[in-house]
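Residues determine shape. Next comes a sample protein:
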Amino acid sequence: MKRVSFAEFGGPDVLRLVDVEEPHAGPGQLRIAVRAAGVNPVDWRIREGQFQKVHPIELPAGVGQDAAGVVDEVGDGVEGVEVGDHVFGEGSSTYAEFAVLSAWARMPGGLTFEEAAGYPSVVETALRVIRQVGVRSGQTLLVSGASGGVGSAVLQIARERGITVIGTAGAANQDYLRSLGAVATTYGEGWVERVRQLGRVDAALDLAGSGVIRELVALTGDPQKVISIADLGAPEFGARFSGVAGSMPEALAEAAGLISRGKLHIPVEKSYTLAEAAAAHVDSQAGHTRGRRVVVV
């Protein structure tokens, strides 16, 4: 089968589309014929070797952890799902024709494979950081870098919970943030004062890693009310870095429920083929995403 792989750490150019043996579902796992795989910042961070000291991997390695597709193999001990079912979830080496999933949920009706592939990691992350930052109904959450996949999920989940969200993004994404229920403002010079003029900030999330932790701490008045998923230096300012995933099965179940009720929709900004995986990583690293990017198989 075809799989995107890399044999050395480095830039997007180390990615290759290669022939490898098909993986098979072990106990408690599913194998799917992949229809689409989500493109996440963690994918290119792993490719660059950023996590080798914390979570080392052996090379050559595949790429990707989110996917949607058709079940074609069910591992021992798995119940409630059959060959032919359409699912989305988390696994490994998902930029491929076949992938093994360790967590999954049935795809809600009306959702395309491309759309479904964009949800797993971003929804788990959004649910996790909203919980960790401790923001409640009636309070205001500031989200720095709000137009990407995680930001899109945070805005909608927070709105559903009665939380007011102030979102920062580029000028081109202001209307997009407003469409998701956020009070929108631009980043860049003077952004802190623009946020202050919008009112009190009870908690803040850094989703872009753009060097704003000091300012977020000043705006909230409490470093424990600031969490970053993108700036490893956040603890230097007393803020927290959130990088350990919670329960993916629970996150997928909640995502499916929100999607089915029309409370969560993350658009796919751009799709790529397996052969275009390097371009997908280039675009992901450049940022300025509106919604999600996916690789279509």
Notes: The mean pLDDT is 94. Residues 66 and 90 are 5 Å apart (CA to CA). The longest strand covers residues 30-38. The radius of gyration is 19 Å.
